[in-house]
Design brief:
- The complex is a heterotrimer of chains A (about 290), B (about 280) and C (about 325).
- Chain A is mainly alpha-helical and about 290 residues long.
- In chain A, about 75% of the residues lie in helices and about 0% in strands.
- Chain A has helices at about 1-25, 25-50, 85-120, 120-135, 140-150, 155-180, 185-190, 195-235, 245-250, 260-285.
- The model of chain B is unreliable at about 265-275 (pLDDT under 50).
- The longest helix of chain B has 18 residues, at about 190-205.
- With about 325 residues, chain C is mainly α.
- Chain C has one domain (about 85-330): MetI-like (MetI-like fold), CATH 1.10.3720.
- Chains in contact: A-C, B-C.
- The interface between A and C is large, with 47 and 51 residues.
Chain lengths: ~290, ~280, ~325
Amino acid sequence: MEQKNNALTARFKQLRLSFYLLNRNLLTRIALIVVMLLIVLAVVSPLVVPYPKHIEEETNPAEKLLPPSSRYFFGTDELGRDIFSRVLYGTRISLQTALIAVGLALLIGVPLGAIAGTIGGFVDEFIMRITDIFLSFPPLLLAIAISAILGPNLSNAMLSIAISWWPWYARLIRGQAISIKQRQFVRAANAIGTPMHQIISQHIVPNCIAPVIVQASMDIGGVILTIASLSFLGLGAQAPIPEWGLMVSTSRNYFLNAWWYSIFPGLAIFVTVLAFNLLGDGLREILDPKTRKL
Amino acid sequence: MSNFFEINNLQVGFKTFEGEKPVLDIEHLAIQRGETYGIVGESGSGKTVLALAIQKLLPDKTTIVSPKSEIRFDGVNLLNLTEKEIRNYRGTRIAMIFQDPMSTLNPVFTVGHQIIRVIRTHNKISKKEAEREALRLVELVRLPDAANILSKYPHELSGGQRQRIIIAIALSCKAEFLIADEPTRNLDVTIQAGVLKLIAELQRDLDITVLYLANNLGLVATLCDRIGILYEGKIVENGLVRDVLDHPKHEYTQKLLRLSGSKSGIKHNSGGGDNA
Amino acid sequence: MKSFIFKRLLLGIAVLFGVVVITFFLTRIIPSNPAAKWVGPRATPEQIKQATIELGLDQPKHIQFLRYLKDVLRGDFGRSLRSHQPITEEIKKYAPATLELVLLATVFAVFAGIPLGVISAKRKDSWIDHLSRFFSVGAVSLPTFWVGLFLQLIFYRSLGWLPLGDQLGTEIKLLYEIPHVTGLLMLDSLLTGRWIIFKDALVHIILPCITISLYPIGLVARMTRSALLEILGEDYITAARSYGLKERVVLWSYALRNSLGPTSTVVTLSIGYTLVNTFLVEAIFSWPGIGTYISTAVTGLDYPAIMGVTVFSAVAYVILNLISDIIIAMDPRVRV
């Protein structure tokens, strides 16, 4: 009981230290603030946007393709909807889908990788070859193919991303598992006859999940970009969902005369992905003792 | 007459997590032109740090050199020079033989390329002439099959071969002041003798000043005119070889003498046999 | 060394086989009605029935797979639903334009990214370093398709300096005969000395090239910087300086050469990303390449075409990685 308490306080201290280090770099600090803002936005956007009905339900053909003004900050689209509201709400969609996609990828990848690493031998080889095969597709292409076959909609896009992404996590956790399984407490558990699935789930995974979680959070930026790209091609979100990639895609028909339609959703993608990537970079710098300054 | 080479109040420390760790604290050291001076100290006593400090090659971020420190070379305080100014000294006037040839040779270039590059940095000669000079140097350090060796990469050579290449590169600089950081560490005794003889010859011919850094008292004593004992960053003993060996003042020196088998094992190059 | 190449080759073949297996699953097993997918959303029941027989879907699964494998090995991906042409032919027609773009963008990325990384490493923590690091992260965060539109708005719409899209202007296409030696337009026009065509092609390729190269520039600059930072702390760099070598030489020759290993790996990795980014961007620039082809295929739900391009790209990607792995391992100068 005492030990568990100490472990908790040690972890807490580590967290505080990480937070402090994270804050030192100006860029990372800004990124952290932006990310938190985005998360807040994602949660509250339905409540704060100026034209909530424009998000999906209503259209406003009379005021289509208006340039930015005090009434419509980002202008209106071809159906007269307020782009500002839709872009803000898009935060929610992007973050949500990215989280689900990554979560799914972890759900597939972590068990497979942990099993591969712990059991080793033929099972390991087999699973690793499978990851090799999945990783040999150029990124995004597999997601495109799967989305196309399953049918173009947002859920399938999330699924296809998960299917493309899981090999990375499987590999990561396999490496961790291999080094963890040598340790005392694992051997002890094995010696007293703990069943394998229990060893994996209770001993191995909790101890090496941390780097995977970190990697996953660093990947969120990339996943958001992937979802936007899929939607841009027509494979992800379908109208009238206000997904950023889809908005840029639709804007192409009008963009020479309605620049605001293409620019703002794309800018949203950029800023979001940038913030997550910068944060991820900051995280990586903390975790890698080599680059850590005194 | 001012000293050719002089160190005053050299204080060097490492920046670590727990603060500053002192590494060197040398009050005074003087070397005359044409002299052979030896510094004896065990591994980790700061010999290499001293060597790097002289050429201002200590990493900025992790080392601190106290502003009072002075390293005077031919009257100029090297530590006050800018990076650009000290480059005029490196190689041209002060050259260094490094201790670990594996890590100080660039792994992706052939050794021939590396020698030739240094030669051509200091001499405006054609590639062909530089190649010939490289061959000459390689033979000088007793490496057989010189032409073949030049085309090899560092990882293809043995430790001893690499060491001799490092020596050849340093010698190619033809500098007035040679710092030799344990130059014969990995070499067989016979080759060792040959290389040391070579350095001694060059010294006579070209009137170069040599600073030997070693952990072997016996070796240093036979080669040098004067020696200093480096212990925990400080020079604890200093003087003519004969004096230091006969009348060691510091207990560390005495310990060293005892461990290296007393004076009887140490021949001084100006004397000869007064050992029974 | 030889055993490494052999093992790598074997792995490559196994992976290719796996790729075929996966695409087989995607085209035949997973869809609830593969035949319907094959003939498209607007098919009649008779067409579906005929497709079922044609595709051999009434056969047991392993026979289907063998047939599929045979077709793929022969390069037969079936016909496009839209154009009814053999997909392989269409891929061959569109590939060179994409290849040209990918190659040019990658070369540009290398020549722009490496110096950026070197300067960044040399002046670590200066404003240049921070700016270039920000740029690197920014470059990989940009949605490529958005950049394309953005550049078009500026350089075509506002400034009128550069054309909107396509490889060549309409006038040129009407007035001149397009040279055809390698299929790479700029190379061909150079080889045949047709300067007017070359100039026009150059003007047209600038925007797409810049758009696509941003991502790999970011990757290359970042990798070069981190590799170089590590290298600059090595003893042989200190030794080189001690021998009096000029700093310029130390940095751009001695240090850089050591960083080529990891940089090459990153460049190869980036080609995969570049390829797919090209797909996204081609439609925007009306570039007559595979990207436009696949975009149209996706919009029209032309499944055979989509799968054909996927298999083709995957195979090309695997082979490319194989070749680059082997080349990198063979060169003693590039430290792996």
